[in-house]
Design brief:
With about 400 residues, the protein is of the alpha/beta class. The chain contains eleven helices and twelve strands. The strands form two sheets. Strands 4-3-6-1-2-5 form a six-stranded antiparallel sheet, with helices on one face. A six-stranded parallel sheet has the order 10-9-8-7-11-12, with helices on both faces.
Length: about 400
């Protein structure tokens, strides 16, 4: 990019701060209207809620703010690249996105496509697209070189469903072709794609693999998103929960850059709600190694009724003295037993927790809703835990990794 083009992109930062969501919302409507086949790639639930437009607006703003040194965005690029690979996004798709983005800028700002600002953003987008394409190619190449892995979508059948709580069910998925499965990293995820009757099209969603690698199945544990106030039911989660055993769905290969880093170090897992799924996978991975170091497993949810895999954790705790647990129930039911089912009623408060459960020299893993994770991150740093030892990922649009 020329210095003049960089200056033009930087000059749009105030506009993006003020009108970024309007621009990205217009962009998605334009692109999906012109390319309806992409509706089976994009999360239409996030389109419905506006979350996708908000996430993209934040990303475009961050890119414009750092246009002179985009390398500071590399951790975010890597995170998004794994999601793109999971959705089988290919290099030619970037041409479609770029064309619609530039026309959206032109139409929303009422400027000609010949305006120097469009040229500047074309150069900026080209630079960013090249970064994503090269990052994603490396991930695709890795999948090709991994035994049992695959590219794109592969048909799996739901071999077994296990109800884990009032809201969460585990799905045991086996490849229809009977072929091998890869040894993935505990904490990684897959995309599943199902036909949503209400929409009349297929929809993908990403779910963490909720156990360590197995020879003949993948397992995901999915929370059924019910109607709550203004929040409408989740299209894919409800479709999955309604499918009988034996049904076929499409699955992408395991990927993601949030996973257990060092099994030979002390590890602390902190989760909220269905955010416990990668923590269970990591814990099960440590079990296969006979739990070489002490582990702390901290979980927060509403009550025992929605506490998935509670018994599994209790069984592991009885077998492995190195495993310590702490559970907070926001709204325990009368039958929930303090000291047996949970340790404290109310919100999880790490600031008052026994220091033996939160050692300074451990690796920390956080997963859950964004506000929950931000609160735990802040509490850990306040306790003297080095920020570089805290690793986090949010489910939903715009995951976070520190």
């Amino acid at each position: 990019m020329t210095p003049q083009q960089i200056d033009l992109v930087k000059a749009t930062v105030p506009v993006l701060r003020e009108n970024g969501v309007a621009l990205t919302g217009y962009f998605y409507n334009r692109m999906l209207g012109n390319n309806p086949d992409l509706k089976e790639t994009f999360n239409m639930g996030h389109q419905r809620s506006g979350a996708q437009a908000q996430a993209l607006a934040g990303a475009v703003l961050a890119y414009a703010e750092n246009i002179e040194d985009p390398s500071v965005l590399l951790p975010v690029v890597e995170l998004i690249a794994h999601k793109h690979v999971s959705l089988n996004i290919q290099a030619p798709d970037y041409n479609i996105v770029g064309e619609n983005l530039l026309h959206s800028i032109s139409e929303v700002l009422s400027i000609s496509m010949d305006d120097p600002l469009i040229g500047a953003w074309a150069a900026a987008y080209g630079q960013l697209a090249d970064l994503f394409i090269s990052t994603e190619k490396a991930i695709y190449d890795q999948h090709q070189q991994t035994k049992g892995s695959w590219l794109g979508w592969r048909n799996f059948k739901i071999a077994k469903k296990v109800v884990e709580s009032d809201e969460i069910t585990s799905f045991y998925l086996q490849p229809v072709d009977g072929g091998a499965l890869p040894k993935y990293e505990a904490g990684q995820y897959i995309s599943v794609r199902v036909f949503v009757e209400e929409l009349g099209l297929k929809q993908p969603r990403q779910y963490t693999l909720s156990t360590s690698p197995q020879a003949d199945y993948l397992r995901i544990s999915v929370k059924r998103e019910d109607q709550k106030g203004d929040m409408v039911p989740g299209w894919v989660s409800n479709t999955l929960h309604s499918l009988p055993e034996g049904s076929e769905i499409e699955v992408s290969a395991p990927t993601g850059n949030f996973y257990l880093i060092d099994p030979n170090k002390r590890n602390v897992f902190i989760s909220g709600g269905v955010g416990l799924t990668p923590m269970i996978a990591m814990l099960n991975q440590l079990v296969t190694l006979d739990m070489p170091q002490p582990v702390t497993f901290i979980h927060a949810c509403r009550s025992k009724q929605v506490h998935a895999m509670h018994q599994h954790i209790q069984d592991l705790k009885a077998k492995y003295p190195r495993l310590s647990t702490f559970t907070a129930y926001d709204s325990p039911h009368p039958g929930d037993k303090l000291g047996e089912d949970y340790d404290v009623a109310g919100r999880l408060d790490l600031s008052s927790m026994d220091s033996a459960l939160l050692p300074v020299n451990a690796d920390y893993y956080l997963c859950g809703p964004m506000p929950f994770m931000a609160e735990q991150q802040k509490a850990l740093v306040a306790r003297g835990i080095p920020a570089e030892n805290i690793h986090s990922e949010a489910f939903g649009t715009g995951g976070v990794k520190h």
